[in-house]
Design brief:
The structure holds 2 protein chains of 2 kinds. In chain A, a hairpin with a 3-residue loop joins β5 and β6. Chain A is an all-beta fold. Chain A is 0% helix and 46% strand. In chain A, 33% of the residues are buried. Chain B starts with a strand and ends with a strand. Chain B is built from no helices and 11 strands. By secondary structure, chain B is mainly beta. Chain B is 0% helix and 53% strand. In chain B, a hairpin with a 5-residue loop joins β9 and β10. The chains are: A mainly beta, B mainly beta. At the A-B interface, β4 and β5 of A face β5 and β10 of B.
């Protein structure tokens, strides 16, 4: 099975900061990598699919990059509504494994 | 607007059964793979099962294999999860989500809480 490892597990930042979250797969997954945002008590929301494609309606301050085993989610200028948990997910296998999550805090 | 709404969660004793439903509106699920994902209290997301559009392919995460059964009724635009032999560790919010060929999960339902406790 493919393992997905995110870093860091938690991150403190301020409004206006540039933030980067990393996700590493235990084997190559090409570009089959998605990113989700989850606010407290709410369902996850798709931000980025296929490693770097921005989901419709998602602000352009969110971007994704990477291929193979190493991926990055970048928020160019943090807004108050961005403080949430972020998860990567591989869609290369039939197991759709999620990373353990990164909690972005003020 | 594409929308999914789960129902059927609740409190059940260990060893008991529960059937979750997921009703779609604003789109037809007939062309989508459908998934169940769960989240234990304070924990991360865990994919547990998917079923392809015509029900020809079904997968389960190992911890639920043999106990949970996913099914769908495209005519009713609905997805189901029959959960048997429930354990305390199955306590979680259960989400349904549709996915495309490249595996992006969108949209998601609001979730339904399943609590397994005596």
């Amino acid at each position: 099975d493919i393992q997905m490892t995110q870093s860091p597990s938690s991150l403190s930042a301020s409004v206006g900061d540039r933030v980067t979250i990393s996700c590493r797969a235990s084997q190559s997954i090409s570009s089959y990598l998605n990113w989700y945002q989850q606010k407290s008590g709410k369902a996850p929301k798709l931000l980025i699919y296929a490693a770097s494609s921005l989901q419709s309606g998602v602000p352009s301050r969110f971007s994704g990059s990477g291929s193979g085993t190493d991926f990055t989610l970048t928020i160019s200028s943090l807004q108050p509504e961005d403080f949430a948990a972020y998860y990567c997910q591989e869609s290369y296998s039939s197991r759709y494994t999620f990373g353990q999550g990164t909690k972005l805090e003020i | 607007e594409m929308q999914l709404v789960e129902s059927g969660g609740g409190l059940v004793q260990p060893g008991g059964s529960l059937r979750l439903s997921c009703a779609a509106s604003g789109f037809s699920i007939s062309t989508y793979t459908m998934n169940w994902v769960r989240q234990a209290p304070g924990k991360g997301l865990e994919w547990i099962s998917y079923i392809t559009s015509g029900s020809s392919t079904i997968y389960y995460e190992d911890s639920v294999k043999g106990r949970f059964t996913i099914s769908r009724d495209n005519a009713k635009n609905s997805l189901y999860l029959q959960m048997n032999s429930l354990r305390a560790e199955d306590t979680a919010v259960y989400y349904c989500s549709s996915s495309s060929g490249i595996g992006r999960f969108d949209p998601w339902g609001q979730g339904t809480l399943v609590t397994v406790s005596s």
